[in-house]
């Protein structure tokens, strides 16, 4: 009888842990899993890059928020971090480096997937210590096909 009760208790504990994990997952989109309305935050100081990325991703059905400076990007992220599925981050913005911006994003939400965009390979290499936390990188100029492919690796539609 004791063994049956112990097994029953273990089963209940496992079910409880799984329920907690599912509840947490329901609150926040998880990369690699399908989202009903993926929202992507794009941060880049170059208006041409911002517009091209926005139009390309919107044509694929994604909802896109854009920020041309780090403070605006942080504000948008703070306001909507529970709904943002992915952040595309310029590695070298004038007021704040991509590394520093990444640290600020992580202070708000350490689980957000980030795709780093850079003009030079050296910028990606300089962010080497972030590589374990960054979910990929794109070297500018990149094609819309490369962009959409990388985004689809991380976020897809339900």
Provide the helix percentage: 40-55%
Number of helices: 6
Physical arrangement of strands within the biggest beta sheet: 3-2-4-5-6
Instruction: Could you tell me the CATH topology label of the largest domain.
Output: Rossmann fold
The overall pLDDT, averaged over residues, is 78
CATH superfamily of the largest domain: Response regulator
CATH class of the largest domain: Alpha Beta
The number of domains: 2
Termini separation comes to 46 Å
Strand segment count: 7
Give the overall silhouette: globular
User: Which residues form runs of ≥5 with pLDDT under 50?
Assistant: 11-30
Order of helices and strands: HEEHEHEHEHEHE
Q: What CATH architecture of the largest domain would you give?
A: 3-Layer(aba) Sandwich
Major sheet characteristics? 5 strands, parallel
